[in-house]
Specification:
Layout: H1 3-23, H2 32-44, H3 46-65, H4 73-88
Helix pairs in contact: 1-2, 1-3, 2-3
Amino acid sequence: MTGALRQMITCHWTARRLQRYLDADPAAPLTPGEITRLEEHIATCERCSEVMRQHRLLHRALSLWSGRRPVDPASVDRMRTVLDDLIDGRQR
């Protein structure tokens, strides 16, 4: 098997397990061998480590989102009016 094909298969394998690894869900645990394999791959693969970084950022953003206060509907209406005016070419 060529190195490029092996890398592609390893990246695919990693992508299919990455979310389970990050969630550490006890209902769908990875084996110690899978964890070692995944961590070793992420340490050497720039592409997969970037995907992992993005997953972590998304998780952090979503966890902060639930604690925020809802946006005032009047503010949303004002912003829509401003955007509509910009799209239509009107100035305020």
